[in-house]
Amino acid sequence: MSAVRTAARASRLPLALRDSTTMVRRNLLHARRYPSLTLNLLLTPVMLLLLFVYVFGDVMSAGLGGGGRSAYVAYLVPGLLLMTIGSTAIGTAVSVSMDMTEGIVARFRTMAIHRGSVLVGHVVGSVLKAVLSVVVVGAVAVAIGFRSTDATALEWLAAFGLLVLFATALTWIAVGMGLGAPNAEAASNNATPLILLPLLSSAFVPVEGMPGWFQPVAEYQPFTPAIETLRGLLLGSGIGHDGWLAVGWCVALTVLGWFWSTASFARDPK
Question: Could you list the residue ranges that cross the membrane (predicted)?
Answer without folding.
Answer: 34-56, 76-98, 119-144, 156-179, 191-207, 243-266
